[in-house]
Design a protein that fits this description.
The protein is 30% helix and 31% strand. The chain has 202 residues and is an alpha/beta fold. Strand 7 and strand 8 form a beta hairpin.
Amino acid sequence: MRTILLVLAASMMLVSCISVLPKPGPDPDTFRLSEIVLPSQLASTPVVLVELPSSPKVLRNNRIAIVQGSQGIAYTAGARWAAPVPQLVSELLTDELLATGALNVVSPQEGVHPRFALITEIRHFEIVYDQGMDAAPLGRVEIRAKLIDRHGRVLMALGHFDANSRADDNRLGAIAAAIDRAAHQVGQELGAWAAKELASAD
């Protein structure tokens, strides 16, 4: 119980520290990830089912997460993502796979049952104040991925993708842009990896 109380106290201290950093506006600002230019003609095969990513509970919302030292995760005041983080990442990965020009993609909602599936886990999707709360932070995104052959129930490949991007300054817009850059770097690397792995599939 003492350990739990200490963790909660640290988290409350962090929230109080960041309530005015970065400076919030009168209403919450809403941010989304930047769009990806898709090829004019999409591939017909292979078709990949992109599952909704799993994530830690603290990332299953539309708040912008912040980490300072080892004190746990808090959230920015006055800012939100346009959708919960798993949905943002799912849409990003779908577009990045399509952008390779070598893959087509379906979602679970479409009711299609292709041979291949991409299963991902969001490990990090946050801002890291690694140089103090007054300095420009890092945007960090980390995703683990599995490619599954659903017909043969075979694990085809495992991948790990991690990127950091320094914000231009300590403003909300710059913070969201830093996470956006890191997310797209991870998405591009994951898309290229998936295309390569599936190119050799029988």
